[in-house]
Amino acid sequence: MFRHRGKARRLVHNLKLASLLSFVAGVVNVAGFFSVQVLTTNVTGHFAYFADGVVKQDFENALYFLLYILSYLSGAFVSSTLVEWTQKINPRYANAIPVFTEILLLTGVALLAPGTILHFAPLVACTLLFAMGLQNAMVTRISDAVVRTTHLTGLFTDLGIELSQLFFWRKPEHRKKLKASVKLRFAIISFFFLGCVAGGIGFTWLHIRILFLAVICLLIGIIYSDIRYRLLLLKKNFPGGRAPSRNRRPVS
């Protein structure tokens, strides 16, 4: 899910990645909005609020929204930098580092007291936006820009186009590829929606601690990916379940 890149990546890998991280994004989106009244998974609307503050000469409010935009950008920048840096040292953990960074950020926010959140609301919003920028950049790199999990505007546009093309594309190979893309987009939208619902219901009971649900999902994803990698490596090294002979050098 987190390891396959390029030609080795299949639809099933993207579906798993999209389902998991879209659900996480949905939870974070609702938790951020309910706790600090800021949308924390995209920056499209923040540009409008920033412009509104500038026009009305409410520069303090405009500055906040500029910080939100830059926080998301910084998250994407740091995510890509971490991946590039880790690939030079140990490629196996290249995608795990951004995931664990996101886990730490979400855990830190989830542990805050309600009074602290209200007092430092802009900082909390910036932290969540940074985490979502980090996640979206990571998933974009892993999937070669096929999967994006933190905002839906472009997805609905692409989905509308592809649903229309289903009426006109007749070649079996084209329709197969188109149906796979439609299936992926439905998965992202559906799990983002489920994350929002779960986050909203959970927030009424747990408040900001509902972010632990997102943390658990990320941990499950990274553990599952590592177990799958080890099993595939074991199968590759010991085909048929047989141990290598003494004269055979194990694969590192």
From TrEMBL:
One Pfam assignment: DUF1275
Regions crossing the membrane: 20-42, 62-83, 95-113, 119-139, 184-204, 210-227
Signal sequence annotation: none
Domain of life: Bacteria
UniProt keyword Transmembrane helix, yes or no: yes
Keywords annotated in UniProt: Membrane, Transmembrane, Transmembrane helix
Name of the protein in question: Uncharacterized membrane protein YoaK, UPF0700 family
